[in-house]
Predict the 3D structure of the following.
Amino acid sequence: MEDASRKLRITVLGSVRAYHGDQEIALGPPRQRAVFAYLALHAGEPVGSEALSSAIWGGRPPRRVEELIRTYIARLRCALEPDTPPRFRTNVIASVSGGYRLKADADRVDAVRFGRLTATARVLAEAEDESRAFECYGQAMQLWRDPLLTELGVGLWPDSREVESLRRDWLVAGLAYTTIGLRLGQAAVVLPHAERMAAAEPLEEAVQAAYFSALVHTGQRAAALHHYDQVRARLRTELGVEPGPELATVYDSFLHEQPATSAPPVPGAAGLARSPWFGPGPTVGPLVGRRLEVGTIADSLATNRLLTVVGPPGCGKSAVGLAVAERVQGAFPAGVVVLELAETTNRAALSACLAETVGGPASADPVQVLGDGPRLLVLDNVEHLADTVAAVVHDVVRGCRAVSVLVTSRQPLALPGEAVRRIGPLPLPAADGLSVVEDNAGVRFFVQRAAQVCPGFQLRATNAAAVAWICHQLDGLPLALELAAACLYTDSLTELLRRVADPLHRLHPHRRGYPVHHRSLYLALRRSVDCLGPRERRLLLLLGTGPREFTLDEVRRRWAATATDSTDAVPGLLDRLTSQSLLARRTGPRGVRYQMLRLVHRMAATQAAERHAAGDRRARPLSGGTGHQL
């Protein structure tokens, strides 16, 4: 049967099948079919026994695995060449050094033909011959019977690179097919395929955006809106994220009533890339009200290798930083490395944390550990370690030319080339009416978190005023709102209002999986105060004894009345408190004014009172006076 291999037709992009003409060949039990499928995926190439074993059994092969593979090969040869004497059955599966080779016409293996068609289509698309590219992509798509490759995924090892690579190729080609089809006015032709992709990859935003666009272009605008709502709900529930730019762009086009004949932007395949992730992942739960900041910061990382996200304590810097890292993950093939440094105290501990996260000697220098590959290094919660982190980052930026660094901190590192992006609290509701409150990001964040611990909690006309008051009392700080919402697991809303009246001491629900300073407002703000130098701390506590808004001259007068040194130091101290996100500097009709968040002011006042009381206790036994005054 010299021509047996030429007559053979093989499918693996669905069920694993082999045919002579129209007659199907029985390929045997699942493991045996898996051996044949793997050989078919590499038709014409030598495949070693070790490669077969690794693909099918992973790192846990059975005993005498080579003998088992030989048995499967012998049975397959018998099925493929039944009329050939056993010793001559090598016309389809030939023996080669250390393994086997399937001698099939590559163009008669659907997976190989798919690869050739998509390669031709890419060349045609690059040459701007979209009509022929669309035709080639269409032929390639028709070869697929099961996008999930269910039989291969069960028969081969579940983590098989071949299966994953094939499915990625299908998605990439499918997105290109849909994109070109929409540009050519072939929305009705590509819609079934776009729907198929959307069902196969429910959490791939590029895929969902393509299906959304296809629905819009075929006039199914109501179905498109319903689909977007379903995808957004699923992203929130399963991944804890809001829709990204790919899906948001086509949705915004829909909202702006772009005509159906004018294609909303359709994403390409770049968003499908996956790079390694080392260390803590993005925060669980939707990132409410931060889409603009995440997009802006992600864009800034494209042109800045060092970027620091700064903001007041509890404003969500960590969540934003990790969301940005997730957004740009595909741009760093060597991976994203996240170090949570809240409990780290020195450079040696930082280096050890990096080595443990990435893999390497604990004593290795960060530059050596990170190497030359394109990585994103995320350093989270570093304000208490600012000088040490600045020195490490300086070395990394200079020594690792392909590494970018994203830092979250209360203050910038003040390094050359550093880009700084400041974020603040979530916006506060302007009124307490339901129609106004329900559209506020701070309110939406609180309600979402409340519903997690108190099923059925909703914003209603009867509780809108209370929720708005809570948001105002807590400055719209996500950490504070999250702590307040967590109390609803045991408290009623009325009881929560009493807690919020004294948030520093009464908002401390039981929490696991959070840094220590994120388990209560007092600990979060106390950490910020503890990071200050003596004179900065003294001024902050002084500011806590007066109004939350003030001018430079007002602070000078208060400093002169309570301190022994010159008021010349006051402007610099105010600048440092502003840099450390404990003050906000505003310029308005009345000139420059400074403002403290309500919770920062409370903490400063509390610390001032504690210090005053401690001064009293120390002074009375000696002088009987009233004690130290700030």
